[in-house]
């Protein structure tokens, strides 16, 4: 430790245990003011637990600190009382939580929840706090911030909630910010924007940052220093360029080699299954075959066909219950998905991606348009057909925590589709199938008897994937299904998806922000903006010849996993697009133009 | 495996042990009351009226106004009391929870029907219900139990419905629906375990309530033969002796207390073991 | 001077004399109203508003000389017109709305002889009429006041000639009276009286203990609470034999109790003396027929069947009743004393081989449905409190065939006896027949006579000059408080 | 919202009519009020009874009696009590405020006690405080309310002489009834609060609230409480409705001239007009409370749509 610069935070020899299992083992690292330490590592390696321990919130989950200390401003946080911690939390150290969907209190408005911190730590009055909250929402580029303050969390999209969380954490200008996957639910343009803001604040405030992420591109852009964790231990640490240029530990090397790179598929017509980098005898090695994923059956009639879909949410109502303001979440969206095809849905956060998915899954009613599955439109389906459809179409929710029953073991949840549709009747066989599914998503089968809260974010995500696979579906709607996974697991799941596609002709509606992953695995891509499709075409068309402005912006904002690459620090300016309009003042519906066979772009109005 | 041991230690928790021991001991004593005190509960001895407790070894808990052994009666009194207490609560819970689930989950017409029916039921004062009920069906132990069920299902129904209303909007219920899980399975497998906590609390407490109510029905004519001892009946009998012979009512009261205590400990344990989130936090 | 507070268990709801039979009404109204005659705690009928009276026309006309110079509380004069108004009201439309009228149907008409002389013309002689004139429906009411203020107003704003004037009434809470200093019997010693309606015995006793109530009137204090009051140096219990008698009557029509010997055996199997001594703590006296010792027609020489379990067993064996035979005793569920007594009886019966079960009913259900409809068990509780203290009132209702309270028994001899005494004005002759009725009922063992309970008053010792009335008719003009 | 209210209003009318119909009909099966007037010991003939029935109007066919009642109800004229002829509206006018006031106070006492105690028990789960709170709440339940009430009277009214043993009057007279009722309600409520709280405290947003540095009381009373409010509101609503019907025993012990006593006496005397009026008022209140509860659901938890 250097004599001259005293670190802001120094974690020394920290071990954390739940019951008898140690999930963080003798971990040490330091964060200096104005610097960013990225913590990367395997899903479930103890990253979130470490950050919760720093806040002393892991106490409430039943964690015990077996060894070590956490020094912050010359005091050992592990020795501080909860009362002392309260004056530190939010003010001195702020945290952005991993799962934004479950992190906001469902019964309070966004405004209330942000104001609370401001009123507490900055001693602002209610109206001043509100004004400040609105400014913060503007800063994270949320549309119509004045109105948004009065909305409830469930009315926001995943990415919007995440931005609310970020605004909340930054509200009091903390000395140390712990950001646990702060941008996973954000599209790359907004992500770039948010990262810029963080860097800015860091510079002006001298804020130290602990940045937990799976996105190596983000690490490369943000971090000064990197800590790599694996199975509860720190396996390597060093300056960011060092780590990228010269990774020492085999796990680090595996990790880096598994990072998907945008543009790596240039020239390929079809997505490609790539060999996996795995640790073999402590050394990374390539495993598995390379295969062209030529599975889409365009000659067959579409499996799913969405035509002119409209979905609107009433935002404000007058006294008589008539809507005055509406959010046009989905506007005249049409697309087909063929058997064996992967259609990627990308686009700005809040542009209606999840809503489309939910509507296909009949969790949300549409206000117009038609959806047909296997040639049968929803409205004409019999009850039995509908039931069957629920087996054949599976949905992986954006927030895995919220979508798992807290009272049921994950084994139960995974077995549920099997039992519901009577796919396997023998209970032993069901159990075997559950174990097999768990293993396929990279979890040990003995976790079947655990409950959702006992998992890490990425582990829960994999449970949800396993559940979706359980019913042997024809179509999987994967809403940010891979974003919480570390890249090596991610690669493994991508391959799993592709293998299933090859074996059984599975189709995917793949909703994602990660352009590199999209490039890697999709046949066709649809780019959504403000509820409308801006551009749609084959992967090659969209990625190699992006023709809509927004698509181009999107692609240019993708962070590059190379710390030496030049950074794009230009802030996006101008009007924040807003899907909420007065009734009667609906946004214009754009018409599409086919610029190449199968390549459509929206004509600007 | 961490969870294994914590699950084991949960079984070994003080709550569970104490609750089980209490409940089992009480149930056994009550079941074998005839063996423990043959004929003791009914034997009238007008010469030994209102004997003080802890003085005469023949009557450790003293005697009642008819000179009967309070201890023997307390033990024997559990038969009726526990029967009425348990069956009526179980009946009310089953019916009420079912109605609440249906109303809350399906909403619309069913909600309206069940809840307006509940309003009807709630607006009916208990004694009125009791009197008209007996007038129509006559008094008996079974009818006492039915009456208690009829008068209490609403509590559970409303409680459950309220909780269902929030839960049904939660994402894990949506995801079960998305999978195609049948309604009744969603209701019983997902909703029920997530809202059962308050129901268990209310249930364990209503056992006490119903044991006491049973006795108050006596003077409405729904009660049972006063020679057959019951805790509630003993408490009611002891009413005029509160100032002069406390033991007549305190011992049956304690019996109820211990029973309810045992049940509540078990209830808490049940609630906790249904709630996995609390598991590692101990 | 001084104020006295009294706890009474029930609010009769109306203070109009024609409206109710409740003794709780009389406990208050005896102070507000007067009748032509008056019956005090000694149960002797003495002059009230009438100074004297005579029987004319072989008892078919009663002539009353009225007290002069008496005024109602509103200042109206009391005179023959008021008497005529009172009885015409009672027997007319207003009386038809209430239960009291049925007591006075012997009166045919009222004739004013002069301002202070009035004749009651009777349809048939009524030997109990003078007693009835001392209470309830026969209370003299003010004609002008009622005409002016209306009938409804009179229910809640009573005006009479009594020792106390009505002040205020709050339903279910209290009624307040103040002294009528112009009272013809002399100004009362108390200046104010408040009656509070307290239904719950423990509460009434607590109020007594707390000194906020000076007197608790029956039927409130349960036997079990007597020691509480006796244990308090400021308080005492005053008790006198009351009008209420309890018996367990038999179903004489069906089942084992259709056999008179079985009924006798059951009576012999029960040790009533012990019951009275222990359960009732001596606050009652054994009875032999279904009446109290105060009742007209009581036969002191009538001997009860002795307590004789062995004899009872023999009788039962002779009647062919096997050991283990069951029978059911119906009781009023809210009668705590009877609850205990019935259990003791059941235990006595078990000693002679009869297994008795007890079935409690709500009071109204047993009195209005179970008994009149003949749906009782082999034995059922009958509680009776004839306020006239005349055995006819009880016996006719209990034993005459076809009467509401007599669902099972039909006996020509009994009917004849009962009918024959009704028109008699010769007291001795009537008394003889009533004694015969009592003896005949005992001979046929129509009921298991139990006891005549005392009227139990709890009183604060600061109250002076209180004489406990057996019939609950408190007259407080001689009472004072320290 | 307006449509919702209108719908509920119609349903309320239906409920009131249904319950009064049922009650009026059923009570007539259980005894004849004319007979009851002779309870004191008068002898009567069938003719006497009939005479009284005519004057009470109970000789009429049921449907005629019921329609008369309905007609009166519209003008809030419930007729006169069979027992003494007092105007029923007057009786209700006296009893309802007495009951309402007591109910409000008891509810207030209970909520003010049970929420902090329940939260304390939940947050210090398994501790001595938790155990003590739980056991005390059980004692409150295991002995009947008259027992508790009598004990309080013995202590405060007789031994210490601080409070009046019964009756409704000044502030002092409210203390014991409110405490008795409050304690009994609290016994249940504490445990309910504790249970609901335990579930909510595990949520991620509670963790987030703590991460903001909010004081523990803010976290518990603002963030957690509101999230577990649904079962609590439901149960409080039920309890309040129950209180309005009057806790007969408590009212009797404290000689409280409330709806419970009124209803009890009316049932005992088969006083149809009073009974029908009590039921009408009660059902209106219950319907009102449940409506409020349903509206409160939507306010407390925005995810529940009121319609
Ligand atoms: N409440 C708990 N009880 C028991 N085990 C837990 C609990 N919370 C977390 N764990 C375990 O601790 C380990 C570390 O979890 P943590 O959440 O820190 O992982 P992570 O590194 O953040 O992973 P991810 O990137 O997937 O979010 C995991 O194996 C998880 O199963
Ligand atoms: N229940 C609701 N009530 C009101 N508005 C809603 C509701 N659900 C979604 N919205 C709005 O609909 C729009 C689209 O939401 P959606 O969840 O589909 O976005 P998304 O494209 O999935 O975004 P993200 O990538 O951030 O998850 C958003 O503006 C959101 O605020
Ligand atoms: Mg994590
Ligand atoms: Mg989304």
Automatic annotation (TrEMBL), chain A:
One of its GO terms (biological process) is peptide transport. It comes from the Bacteria. InterPro entries: AAA+_ATPase, ABC_transp_ATP-bind, ABC_transporter-like_ATP-bd, ABC_transporter-like_CS, Oligopep_ABC_C, P-loop_NTPase. Residues 9-256, 304-555 form the ABC transporter domain. It is an enzyme of class 7 (translocase). The keyword ATP-binding applies. One of its GO terms (molecular function) is ATP hydrolysis activity. Pfam families: ABC_tran, oligo_HPY. Keywords: ATP-binding, Cell inner membrane, Cell membrane, Hydrolase, Membrane, Nucleotide-binding, Repeat, Translocase, Transport. SUPFAM superfamilies: P-loop containing nucleoside triphosphate hydrolases (SSF52540). PANTHER family: GLUTATHIONE IMPORT ATP-BINDING PROTEIN GSIA, TRANSPORT ATP-BINDING PROTEIN. Part of the ABC transporter complex GsiABCD involved in glutathione import. Responsible for energy coupling to the transport system. This is Glutathione import ATP-binding protein GsiA.
TrEMBL record, chain B:
Keywords: Cell membrane, Membrane, Peptide transport, Protein transport, Transmembrane, Transmembrane helix, Transport. The chain crosses the membrane at residues 16-37, 82-106, 126-150, 191-212, 244-266. It is found in: Cell membrane. Pfam families: BPD_transp_1 (PF00528). It is a multi-pass membrane protein. Its main location: membrane. Residues 78-267 form the ABC transmembrane type-1 domain. InterPro entries: BP-dependent_transpt_permease, MetI-like, MetI-like_sf. GO terms for cellular component: plasma membrane. This is ABC transporter permease. It comes from Aliirhizobium smilacinae. The lineage of its organism: Bacteria, Pseudomonadati, Pseudomonadota, Alphaproteobacteria, Hyphomicrobiales.
TrEMBL record, chain D:
Pfam families: BPD_transp_1, BPD_transp_1_N. Keywords: Cell membrane, Membrane, Transmembrane, Transmembrane helix, Transport. It is a multi-pass membrane protein. InterPro entries: BPD_transp_1_N, MetI-like, MetI-like_sf. One of its GO terms (biological process) is transmembrane transport. Belongs to the binding-protein-dependent transport system permease family. This is ABC transporter permease. The lineage of its organism: Bacteria, Pseudomonadati, Pseudomonadota, Alphaproteobacteria, Hyphomicrobiales.
